[in-house]
Design brief:
The protein is mainly α and 373 residues long. It is built from 15 helices and no strands.
Length: 373
């Protein structure tokens, strides 16, 4: 019996090798995750920047283009993952539909659902690829059946799991401003960097004091302050990682992380979680500064609270809220100073200083923050 088992194992290993199916943490947790972040950047996040440009008079056509970003995100992430897994062309093309379904079914947990489900679907697709004479039917059928089936069965639960983060943030908005500032800033900042949607979380729980359907929300003041803290946390991570990694990534990395997404650092964070310390510390400082010292409030769209400096939509949301007719107060020099300090200057200074300290301690090594190309 042991000989039969050993023979089966050898054949199975040979089959996996022939199909280039590598069951490893590096391929799934670093290669696939890094590719997914690039797919998200090339679709939803670049569309977000287009939306921001569309706010400029006479450039509204940018907003028309950017409006399709959310629809393309799932497909782009899935194809990027398939590429990282070295999928054959037919498997890669079929994965686009898998990503669309998983992202749609996953809600706020859409990116995470796309990552997990696409990996499984692509590996099954690779396993059957070119094994039959009707490959053009079998390969896409298996890929989409596995991915679509898992999306219907599991993506909703992944989204529900992520929604618990939203429930926790909802509880935090009811706490006194200092505690709320720390919790909301840190948690939303981390969510922004993880493969989940911080913007969707903020939108779902309404992190804004603006009226919804002509009705002022209950606890509008607390929600507005929490929205400001969320912006602070997101900016701390995006600006923080951009500045920390300038040595490795130069101007390109500064822009792609600072105006794009800090999710690009996820593969590096998997390898060295201590990279997270400076941005998290920065968010824990800027969050309560936003709520207690400067009173930064979000009266723009709640989704902007989870965007940070992606397309500059976090600060833009706050500014639009100031002049949107609902802001309960006047805007002066201190407000503008607070916005600049909380969203840009302090995250850069705190994360740069923290990063230099960790480099000196040996906790951050050379190229630990180098982005995947």
């Amino acid at each position: 019996m042991s000989i039969v088992k050993q023979s089966f194992r050898n054949k199975f290993r040979a089959f996996l090798a022939r199909k280039d199916i590598v069951l490893s943490g590096k391929r799934y947790g670093i290669d696939a995750l890094g590719a997914m972040a690039l797919g998200l950047f090339g679709s939803l996040l670049i569309a977000t920047i287009f939306n921001a440009l569309g706010l400029i008079p006479f450039l509204s056509f940018f907003k028309t283009i950017g409006g399709y970003g959310a629809q393309a995100a799932g497909c782009a992430m899935a194809v990027a993952i398939a590429y990282a897994l070295k999928a054959p062309p037919l498997v890669m093309y079929s994965s686009a539909l898998v990503g669309m379904i998983a992202n749609g079914q996953g809600g706020a947990g859409g990116p995470l659902a796309v990552l997990l489900i696409t990996i499984i679907a692509v590996e099954f697709g690779k396993a059957v690829s070119k094994e039959t004479k009707v490959d053009i039917l079998v390969t896409p059928f298996v890929t989409v059946f596995v991915g679509g089936g898992l999306s219907v069965l599991l993506a909703g639960y992944i989204g529900k799991l992520v929604s618990y983060v939203g429930s926790f943030i909802g509880w935090a908005t009811l706490q006194q401003p200092f505690v709320m500032g720390v919790i909301v800033s840190v948690v939303i900042g981390i969510a922004l960097t993880l493969p989940i949607s911080s913007a969707a979380i903020c939108a779902a729980i309404g992190l804004s004091g603006a009226m919804v359907g002509g009705v002022v929300p209950a606890n509008a003041e607390g929600l507005a302050l929490a929205g400001g803290a969320a912006v602070a946390g997101c900016c701390a991570h995006m600006v923080g990682f951009a500045v920390m990694s300038f040595r490795e990534n130069g101007v390109g990395g500064l822009v792609s992380q600072g105006i794009g997404t800090s999710m690009l650092q996820m593969p590096n964070l998997v390898k060295n979680p201590r990279l997270w310390i400076p941005p998290v510390v920065a968010s824990a400082i800027t969050g309560p500064l936003a709520t207690c010292l400067f009173g930064i409030k979000m009266y723009g769209a709640a989704i902007n609270s989870g965007m940070g400096t992606c397309g500059l939509l976090g600060p833009i949301g706050i500014i639009l809220g100031w002049y949107g007719g609902e802001y309960p107060g006047t805007v002066g020099f201190v407000d503008w100073l607070g916005l600049l300090l909380v969203c840009f200057i302090l995250p850069a200074a705190l994360s740069l200083g923290g990063g230099l300290l960790l480099r000196r301690l040996g906790w951050i090594r050379e190229n630990d923050l180098l982005l995947q190309s």
